[in-house]
Amino acid sequence: MKFAFFAMSLRLYSALLSLYPAEFRKSFGGEMLWLFECQLTASRRWGITRAWWLACRDFISVALPGHLHNERLVAFAISAPATIVIYGFLIRMLQDHAFARWISHKFLFGGC
């Protein structure tokens, strides 16, 4: 059981490395995978938990800021949550039947 979880953790971390910027991954990817494997085996009881904690912390502090220079990613990161909020607000408003009828009357039929 422990070996299977260990192998699965290594595969998952390898996949996570693909989210790092390409230049960074090319320079440090092998070392990062080796270090993660060492952290997994370092301590008996909390090795896996601590290794994943450090991996997530490293991902947030290195991989995400590494993508901030990408204008398309920044535009998506801003527009996607804004669009979700706007559509959520509109759907919530249209669930009020009286308000939905008023909107239909005012805007779809020209206020007639």
Number of helices: 5
Helix % is over 70%
Q: Overall 3D geometry?
A: elongated
Number of strands: 0
Q: What integer value in Å does the Rg equal?
A: 24 Å
The average pLDDT score comes to 82
Question: How can the largest sheet be summarized?
Answer: none
Map the helices and strands.
Layout: H1 2-17, H2 22-42, H3 47-66, H4 71-94, H5 97-108
Describe the 3D structure.
The chain is an all-alpha fold and 112 residues long. The protein has two domains: 2-66; 71-108. Helix content is 83%, strand content 0%. Helix 1 packs antiparallel against helix 2 and helix 2 (22-42) runs antiparallel to helix 3 (47-66). The longest helix has 24 residues, at 71-94. The termini are far apart. 4% of the residues are buried.
Structure characteristics:
mainly alpha, single chain, 2 domains, 5 helices, 112 residues, elongated
Summarize the structure.
This protein has 112 residues and is mostly helical. It has five helices and no strands.
